[in-house]
Amino acid sequence: MKLYADYLPFDADDFLTDPVFREWVARPVPEIDAYWQGLLKTHPHLRSPFEQARLLAQSMQATWTPFSDTYTDALYQQVRAALSANQPPAQTNRIIRLVPRWAYASAASLVLMLGLSGYWYFFREQLIRTDNAELTTVTLYDGSVVTLNANSQLRLPGRVAWREQRQVWLSGEGSFAVRKQPGDRSSSFRKFTVHTYRADVVVLGTHFTVYTRPQRTQVLLEEGRIVLTDPTTHQTQTMQPGQLVSYTNQRPAPQIARLAPDRQRPLTAWRENRLVFDNASMDELAQRFREVYGLELVLRDDAFARQEFRGELPVDNIDNALLIISETFGLKPVRQGEQVYFVAN
C-alpha cells in the first residue's frame, strides 16, 4: 500500500481511481479500515474528499464501469428500449415473470440514474457566470481559488479532462490563487493554464489577476511566475512579480510595465468589493460602469465629459455608486432602463 504522504495531493477523483480504495469499498476489512482511519487522522484535510469519494463509490460499486461517452449513450438507448416495451423481456424462470412491470422500469431508471450521474460528475463542463454588480469565489477541483468580478464567466472542463490538464477559459475579470500540484516527476509541477482571447496564461503556482474584455486584456502578476503565450503566434513572455502586461486592439503586441504596490490597487481592489479610480477620465469611468454594473453613462455635457474622477465605488451597490458620482460632480443621476443621464440639480 501507499505511504500516507502519497495521498497528500489526492482529491475525490484520485481516491475513486485508487485500486486499494476501490477494493476496500467493495470488500471492507478491519486492517484496511485502520489504514484509512490512520490516514485521515494524520492528514485531516483529506477527510472531505475521502468521504465524497466513498459515498459516490458505494453508489457505483456494482459496476465500476468507466463512464465514457459511448458507454453512456449505449446505456441510455438500452434503458429507453426497456421503458418503451409493453412487456419485460421473456424469461423462463417463473419467479422473474411474477415481478411487476413497474419494477423493471424502476430498475432501469436506477441504472440510468447511476450511469448519467457518473457521466455528469466526471465529464460535464461547468460554466460559472456573474451578473451585474456581483462577485463570486470558486474553488476548483485542485483547491485553487478564483474570484470573478461582475459580468465575467469562467469555463471549467470535466473532472477527467482536468486530471489530464489543468486549464480554464476566462472572459471578463478574474483573480487566481493557484495551488501547486506535483507532476509526474518529483521535481516538477503540473501546469495551470488560463485561456483568454489575447493570451494563454501558464502558471506553476502563484497569485495573479486577469482582465480580458473585448477592447483590452491585462495580466498583473502579484506573486510567483507565469508565462504568457500568444495562441496565434505562439510567442511567449515570462512575467516577474509586479509586472503588468497589456494587449489592446490597436496594439496587439504585449506592452509591459512594472507597477509599484500602490499602483496595483486600481487593478485588484474589486476583490475587496471596491472599484478604485485614480484621476480616471469619464470615458474610463463609463467603461467601468458598463463592465461592472451593466449601465451606460450618457455624457452629453462636454464640460462634464472632460472631468476626471478619483475615488472608490462599491461593486455590489449600484445606487450608492451613482450617489457618489452625483455628489462628486454636483449632478443628479436620472436612470432610464440601462442608461443613466446626469442633469443639473
CATH topology call of the largest domain: Jelly Rolls
- Principal-axes shape call: elongated
The rounded distance between the terminal residues' Cα atoms is 76 Å
Instruction: Enumerate how many helices there are, as a single number.
Output: 12
Order of helices and strands: HHHHHHHEEEEHEEEEEEEEEHEHEHEHEE
Q: Tags for this entry?
A:
alpha+beta, three-stranded mixed beta sheet, 13-stranded mixed beta sheet, Jelly Rolls, 345 residues, 4 domains, 12 helices, 37% helix
In short:
With 345 residues, the protein is of the alpha+beta class. 37% of the residues lie in helices and 29% in strands.
Overview of the structural elements:
The protein is an alpha+beta fold. It folds into four domains: 57 residues, no CATH class; 55 residues; 140 residues, Jelly Rolls; 72 residues, Phage tail protein beta-alpha-beta fold. The chain has twelve helices and 18 strands. Strands 1, 2, 3, 4, 5, 6, 7, 8, 9, 10, 11, 12 and 13 form a 13-stranded mixed sheet that branches. A three-stranded mixed sheet has the order 15-18-17, covered by helices on one side. Strands 14-16 form a two-stranded antiparallel ribbon. Strand 10 and strand 11 form a beta hairpin. Helix 5 runs antiparallel to helix 7. The longest helix has 23 residues. The chain is elongated. About 6% of the residues have low confidence.
